[in-house]
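[Q] Does anyone have a clean structure-token version of this?
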Amino acid sequence: MPDIVEISVRPLVEYVFRGGSIESGFRTGSPLTEGTKAHRSIQQTYKETDRKEAYVEADVEYGDIVYRLEGRCDGLLFNGDEVTVEEIKSTAGQLELITEETYPVHWAQAQCYAYMYAKADGKDHMTIRLTYVHRKSEEQKRFERTLTYAELEAFVLMLLQAYDPYARLQLRHAEERGRSIKELPFPFEAYRQGQRKFAGAVYKSIAEQKRLFARAPTGTGKTISTLFPAVKAIGEGVLRRLFYLTAKTTTRTLAEEAFALMRSKGLRLRCVTLTAKEKICFKEETRCQKEFCEFADGYYDRINGALSDLWSGETAINREVIEAYARKHRVCPFEFSLDAAYAADAVICDYNYVYDPRISLKRLLDEQKRQTAVLIDEAHNLVDRGRDMYSAELIKSPFLELKRQTKARSRALYDTVKAVNDAFITLRKKNMEQSGVLLPEEEPQTFIPLLEAFSAEAEAELLGAPEGEYRQLLTDTYYAAQHFIRTAGYYDEKYISFAEFERSEVRMKLLCVDPSGMLRLMGKGYRSQVYFSATLSPISYYRDMLGGEADDYTIAIPSPFRKEQLDVLLLPVSTRYRDRERSKEPIAAMLHQAARERPGNYLVFFPSYEYMNEVYSRFAETEFPGDVLVQQGGMSEEERESFLASFRSGAERTLLGFAVMGGVFSEGVDLTGDRLTGVVVVGVGLPQFGRERDWIRQYFDGTGRNGFDYAYKYPGMNKVLQAGGRLIRTEQDRGTLVLVDDRFLQPDYNALLPEEWKPATILR
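[A] Here you go.
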């Protein structure tokens, strides 16, 4: 039996024909290879007998491999016995600069479609048409060729000859991967309590193409419990790849360590970690232009060699490996990592690579998605991240500044900028006595045609504008307008819109109050999605907010730790804003007492910097025989590492670290053994009361859900659970947890606490 390699036409021709440099950092809203509107405008002119978005496939033998080609051509046009394959491309550039030879990759794509149709239908020749459409003017430019079946077949065989060495490299890896996965044991001596059940639920969800929402407490071994069954599913042929999504660098490292552990047991699986562009860029200033960056210049001429070299020697492709090979082959490390990710078995990356429509891995085809599982770590973070990704705001002041700067440069651009600025002025006059107001849905929609006109003129200006402050202002404003237009297209009943006014400034926002619909849309097509966290509580709330449905699977794993490992105390004072002055003295006294009675290292979490600093000032009024650290806003990575490094094992002096709930020290921090003696959580973590948060409350009240729970209580208590979860991380840890707030005694708040935190000893 020959080996079968399945490949879509587009990645095949891009592999063979791509060349040149990474273009300017500015890219229009719809790049050359896209343009749904342009496609539709041409396809609407087709006759009833013509076909649009026509699926074609063919098996082609080359050597001892059968290449299973498939793709979807824009048009199949029939005129008697003559058949024309049409490929449509849109552009914002000048049509007169496009010649018949400008884009060989487009001809290659169309010729493959023509060959596949001719092979299936027995045609001895085919006509191929490339149609370029200008997005603004809708002007068209066409090129046509007629090729015999023999010419088309020879062309496709030439493509396969160029691709064949890479395909064989992939086949060898697939064989090694499959064999290693079948032989891979669970990488620990035994499963922890609940771990086998969790891993089984993950495998079942993947096999049955379901979503899974899992609450798995600290110590369950969440990372290996999700990765191991997903890897096994790859070995069984159920999956082709997996994405492991994280919100923070610390959890990304845990995933890398889990793969390293499985690798030490024999696993051969390619795993790529994606690092943010601004972090991995080799240049001091991130400007993707061949004139500025030698790693962008000629990138596509060298990328195939770089990838082949990478895959020949590496399976653990982390940031350091990407940087080393990128320097060796002189390619952009960020784009290199993306290209590697498309061919990897596993990808560790931020949420936005799957869920953010501006950043997501758009080259992942539908068929590939159906063979991909998405594992979402610390999934509680995705609610607010989703709100951010699917919301958009527009500010008046950049348009006012552009109005001043464009008047002498471009009359057409000036007119569009002035129109947007005038619309903001009109909005301000309508609401003269207001500092903030909810807007009717149609109000922001009146801005859309103005922003589209501005975007079209801005694109034309940016294609020739020199570097400088003016170009940067125009670029930033253009992208803000594009994001607002795109978000307005998603706008539905899960959104609200509002405007805020401060002197002459106007800020208008499309707020995705409930991100569940957009998260469901962006996750559509993936085989399975597994949402897991130690604090996914209540699961019903997170299933609702993360796009789940009634028939999704849920699981709650009990804590693997013994109850006697944790002493839970409760100081029932009110930390409500109106009572904070009275609360400072008892909290400061409790901290002194805890440090005296059980010396060691403590983290003390507060709901805000202001409250933390006030309590610290009161605490410092009494002499303390130890050391104190206080978290500062905007700490650098080195400062954060220094803060955590101070929590040393076997320290002779007591250490208190004052920190903020929901901040960098309340999630993803492992201070095991006696590096952490106790954790104090002050307050129930409610988000700060404000106009936007209260509109969120009103929205959920209006949908029949408890608005206070959805806007305040559940997000707040999640911060409490995260902060308290820093304490017991292993079977050997012991410690004291102090909860400070009388609301923890109320049934509705108490019900949200983990069972292992109950009952608490009341401090008087």
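[Q] Thanks! Anything notable?
[A] Residues 593 and 599 are 10 Å apart (CA to CA).
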